[in-house]
Specification:
- This protein is α/β, with parallel strands linked by helices.
- The protein folds into three domains: 4-65; 83-324, Aldolase class I (TIM Barrel, Alpha-Beta Barrel); 333-402, Non-ribosomal Peptide Synthetase Peptidyl Carrier Protein, Chain A (Orthogonal Bundle), CATH 1.10.1200.
- 36% of the residues lie in helices and 17% in strands.
- The chain contains 15 helices and 18 strands.
- It has helices spanning 4-7, 41-44, 104-112, 133-138, 157-169, 184-187, 199-212, 232-242, 265-273, 287-297, 314-324, 333-351, 353-368, 374-381, 387-402, and strands at residues 15-19, 25-30, 33-36, 51-53, 59-61, 64-65, 83-84, 87-88, 93-95, 117-124, 149-153, 174-179, 217-222, 224-226, 229-230, 246-250, 278-281, 301-304.
- The strands form five sheets. Strands 9-10-11-12-13-16-17-18 form an eight-stranded parallel β-barrel, surrounded by seven helices. The chain has a three-stranded antiparallel β-sheet with strand order 1-2-3, with no helix packed on it. A three-stranded antiparallel β-sheet has the order 4-5-6, with no helix packed on it.
- Strand 4 and strand 5 (59-61) form a beta hairpin.
- Helix 12 (333-351) runs antiparallel to helix 13 (353-368).
- The two termini are 14 Å apart.
- Mean pLDDT is 78; it is low at 1-77 and 415-430.
């Protein structure tokens, strides 16, 4: 926060603060209490603090228009956006790339539910493999809202550069480089977070990809290969020097996989050290957690992955909380039924009858975690072999759920998303 002098401290101790958002107004605080909608005229007029009010109802000091800092970080206000190259995002919420999850139907759904950007599943840098059905589907961005972000993974600079060029030729507007995936099958071929053991190779890959395309190139990475070898600061500075447009940092090392809790101190240090946009990633599973991570790290945005599985409306919940400081009520059962059925229809159309039915199972399982009767429903749903029966079963489940209440009620939180519901408890101090 700016100094109290810049916030407008008069000799009387009165503090002016700006409350943004709809119906923005000035508030006067005396001894920590809000006293009214207008600043104290005596304080403004010819006072030692030097504030004056103009016809536009704004305030100046010494002839300069002053932007007042908020003394209420959670109060209603217009949230800032984020810029990546020429693209101004609608907000600061980004869908993390997840193998087998962030396909086109899921990316488009998350964007409709409030995400400002979504990153595709990773494509292997070996373009000889792109002829497979899986790769062709991963490269399918038909109807997707800009910016279209394609993630590539590999360990050979020349191959990565060629993959970037072909991705742009196929419609990619931003190229994202994967140096964060901890999976053995990726790391075993010297890709993903395995690259963090070889910083000169990291630099060569970044240089090659940035030079290969005329679109922004971003980087997703982790804090290091292990906790004992935290390379995030060095890699971040390498990225900035190589021309990387934005950096997403997961608060875990490769060694951590997804175990334990993400740490945000490294993200905070990286943000302070570089001038490019930084996205914080890891364990952001509630509106309050999102606010905390943004405030603590100073990150330009946040990236959400696992918490959006089966709960894509988390993006609108977070955005509402960032804008207003209040939690949205749980969504209506009828609305989520419609959301899920539309998601299933997109999956069936995208993958076809056989694959669509089977890929849909994991999404249905995520949507129904923690809901009354969810366990029994999933066991029967897994046995269904065609899309029509699967869809009907889902509709029936939510119809029965609606008989017990208008809004979703979780009996227990899904494992790994302990903070996934908007709660009133306070977050740790920082």
């Amino acid at each position: 926060m700016e100094s109290l002098t810049e916030a407008g401290v008069c000799e009387t101790g009165n503090i002016l603060s700006w409350h943004g958002g709809l119906g923005a107004a000035w508030f006067m605080h005396i001894d920590g209490k809000r006293s009214g909608l207008e600043p104290d005229a005596a304080c403004l007029a010819d006072s030692p603090c030097g504030w004056s009010k103009n016809k536009q109802n704004s305030f100046t000091r010494g002839g300069n228009r002053i932007k007042m800092p908020s003394l209420f970080p959670h109060a209603s206000r217009q949230s800032p956006t984020m810029q990546i190259g020429p693209y101004t995002l609608n907000n600061r919420l980004v869908v993390a790339p997840m193998a087998g999850v962030t396909d086109r139907p899921f990316r488009m759904l998350c964007k409709r539910m409030g995400a400002g950007m979504a990153v595709s599943e990773m494509l292997a840098s070996n373009t000889a493999l792109w002829a497979s059905k899986k790769s062709l589907r991963r490269a399918d961005h038909q109807g997707e809202v800009a910016p279209i972000v394609v993630q590539i993974a590999g360990g050979d600079p020349a191959q990565m550069a060629e993959a970037a060029r072909l991705s742009v030729a196929q419609g990619a507007q931003i190229i994202d480089i994967n140096m964060g995936c901890p999976a053995k099958k990726v790391c075993n071929v010297a890709a993903g977070s395995a690259l963090l053991r070889d910083e000169p190779l990291v630099a060569r890959i970044l240089d090659a990809v940035v030079a290969a395309v005329d679109v922004p190139v971003t980087l997703k990475t982790r804090t290091g290969w292990s906790r004992a070898h935290n390379t995030a600061l060095r890699v971040a500075k390498l990225a900035e020097n190589c021309g990387i447009a934005a950096l997403a940092l997961h608060g875990r090392s490769r060694e951590d996989m997804y175990h334990g809790q993400a740490e945000y101190d490294t993200i905070r240090a990286v943000k302070a050290a570089v001038g490019i946009p930084v996205l914080a990633n890891g364990d952001i599973d509630s509106p309050q957690k999102a606010r905390f991570v943004l405030d603590y790290t100073g990150a330009d945005g946040i990236m959400i992955g696992r918490a959006a599985q089966g709960r894509p409306w988390i993006f609108r919940e977070i955005q509402h909380y960032l804008d207003t400081g209040t939690c949205l009520p749980p969504p209506e059962v009828a609305e989520i039924c419609e959301v899920l059925l539309a998601h299933l229809d997109d999956l069936y159309q995208f993958y076809g009858e056989y694959a669509g039915c089977r890929i849909a199972r994991k999404h249905i399982a995520w949507y129904t975690r923690g809901l009354e009767g969810g366990n029994a429903f999933r066991q029967s749903m897994y046995q269904l072999e065609d899309t029509a029966a699967q869809r009907a079963a889902v509709a029936g489940f939510f119809h029965r759920l609606a008989e017990h209440g208008e809004r979703l009620r979780y009996l227990e939180l899904p494992a790994g998303t302990e903070g996934a519901l908007c709660k009133a408890e306070s977050l740790p101090e920082y």
